[in-house]
Design brief:
single chain; 2 domains; two-stranded parallel ribbon; 41% helix
Length: 113
Amino acid sequence: MKLSTYAKKLGITYRTAWSMFKHGDLKAYQLPSGTIIIEETEKDKSSPATQGKAAIYTRVSTNKQKKDLDKQAERLTNYAIAKGYQIYKIIKEIGSGLNDNRRQLNSILKSEE
């Protein structure tokens, strides 16, 4: 399938898919015309119910970095979708790196989902 179709299927931008291709994260090849073709694997064809689940956890140190928190969440979400994971929770936390008490992270690690 074409790279643009692949990106739409995963719900990511074409630019993200292009970056994945350039980094060698996709099993794909480029035609002489420049069109990028993604080779579908059995994993791509399997149902979403058979693929893994993922919890997205992001953290920054201060309130001034809230924009970075959203960027982290977006990048991790795109990555998880591209890898075929089903996202069941997105957690964003603000806390100093000096304090290792991460209540929200600990709740994810203890959860059974």
